[in-house]
């Protein structure tokens, strides 16, 4: 069975929609901005990748807005775009499409607001949706409900690798007979002091105040990553199903693998990331010469970056083009891996590797694409992702014309 992506949608610090996202990526824009005053004065983190000017009422029915958090809003908007883009008629058979959207932090802004009401005013001031709006599966549930989808639904909470892992799970769902799956990741962890506080304990966030240097992976000045918010969602189908309805295939999901590298901020030593990449490539049937670009995880911590570089050198002894466009807008937790997947799909389509912002020259012996986008013949892309706690995932995507 060959799994293909036929629809794609994004909400990112570049705005809503894949056109806005790709334009920002290919230009290498810096989209990091000061975190607005949400009672977070005194917090060491000063910058974030916020989705600009997002008004949920412009995109979502009011009855859904009032019972959900921003991470669900982003997932719903990205899902709507992915469904439109795919051209699939979900109303023809509501049971034919499942939903698997990931989150690493859930609806913390909604939750903080309701808990403040509980402690400050009493239980009668807590809304009925507190029990569900904060929950990690709320985005999956609301996407399913709002679109009338009744297929298999679920959620994964594997931090940044979420969408990569969800694509692996979705392959199994398609093999069992589900015709299509909406797969993605969404997080909005910048909207409340509580959300920021829960991130500080990891010790991996950049405290830099200059958008041009705060998140600079693979450099001597790397000092952590800047947190962000956003979402990306893809509609995936079996290739035979897509051909039968004459759908446009945007990319082929050729291989996925995940590992657990051990307890720690990130996989210590990088062996788990290396093994995930090797296995994903094996399952995709490609060797080092068959991968044309790597979308790096790019944590922005010296040790984690060095581990990733060591893994890349072992995987590609003759070199390979590497990029980390997320340096321009931050790591959006479960949204980060999802936005990297979307970036890889768009790169394969446009035959262009977007640059890595904030990195002036190729460091550490990597063929890192910097300064300007690089046109290239792209057949396959490898996406790497690590989550806080030691999880690793790798995904191979291929251009449909080269399969």
Automatic annotation (TrEMBL):
Ketosynthase family 3 (KS3) domain ranges (all copies): 1-399
Keyword hit for Transferase: yes
Name of the featured protein: Beta-ketoacyl synthase N-terminal-like domain-containing protein
Protein family membership: Belongs to the thiolase-like superfamily. Beta-ketoacyl-ACP synthases family.
UniProt keyword Glycoprotein present: no
InterPro entries to which the protein is assigned, alphabetical: Beta-ketoacyl_synthase, Ketoacyl_synth_C, Ketoacyl_synth_N, PKS_Beta-ketoAc_synthase_dom, Thiolase-like
Source organism superkingdom: Bacteria
Keywords, in A-Z order: Acyltransferase, Transferase
């Amino acid at each position: 069975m060959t799994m293909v992506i036929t629809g794609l949608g994004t909400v990112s610090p570049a705005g809503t929609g894949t056109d806005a996202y790709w334009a920002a990526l290919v230009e290498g824009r810096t989209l990091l901005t000061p975190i607005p005053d949400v009672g977070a004065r005194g917090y060491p983190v000063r910058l974030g990748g916020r989705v600009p000017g997002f008004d949920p009422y412009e995109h979502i029915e009011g009855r859904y807005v009032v019972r959900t958090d921003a991470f669900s809003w982003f997932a719903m908007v990205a899902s709507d775009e992915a469904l439109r883009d795919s051209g699939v008629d979900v109303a023809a058979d509501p049971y034919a499409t499942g939903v698997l959207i990931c989150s690493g932090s859930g609806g913390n802004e909604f939750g903080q607001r309701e808990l403040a009401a509980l402690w400050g005013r009493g239980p009668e001031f807590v809304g009925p949706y507190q029990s569900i709006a904060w929950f990690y599966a709320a985005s999956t549930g609301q996407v399913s409900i709002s679109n009338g989808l009744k297929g298999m639904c679920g959620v994964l909470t594997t931090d940044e690798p979420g969408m990569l892992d969800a694509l692996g799970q979705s392959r199994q769902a398609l093999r069992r007979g589900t015709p299509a799956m909406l797969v993605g990741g969404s997080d909005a962890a910048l909207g409340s002091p509580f959300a920021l506080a829960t991130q500080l304990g990891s010790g991996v966030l950049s405290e830099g105040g200059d958008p041009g240097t705060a998140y600079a992976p693979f450099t001597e000045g790397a000092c952590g990553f800047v947190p962000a918010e956003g979402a990306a969602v893809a509609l995936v189908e079996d290739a035979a199903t897509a051909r039968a309805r004459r759908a446009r295939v945007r990319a082929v999901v050729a291989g996925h693998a995940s590992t657990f590298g051990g307890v720690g901020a990130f996989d210590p030593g990088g062996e788990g990331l290396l093994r995930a990449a090797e296995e994903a490539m094996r399952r995709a049937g490609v060797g080092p010469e068959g991968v044309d670009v790597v979308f790096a995880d790019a944590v922005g911590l010296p040790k984690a970056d060095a581990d990733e570089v060591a893994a890349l050198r072992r995987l590609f002894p003759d070199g390979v083009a590497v990029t980390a466009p997320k340096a321009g807008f931050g790591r959006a937790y479960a949204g980060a891996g999802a936005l990297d997947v979307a970036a890889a799909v768009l790169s394969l389509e446009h035959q262009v590797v977007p640059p890595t912002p904030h990195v002036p020259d190729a460091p550490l012996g990597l063929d890192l694409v910097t300064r300007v986008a690089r046109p290239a013949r792209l057949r396959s892309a490898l996406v790497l992702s690590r989550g806080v706690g030691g999880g690793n995932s790798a995904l191979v995507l291929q251009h449909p014309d080269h399969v």
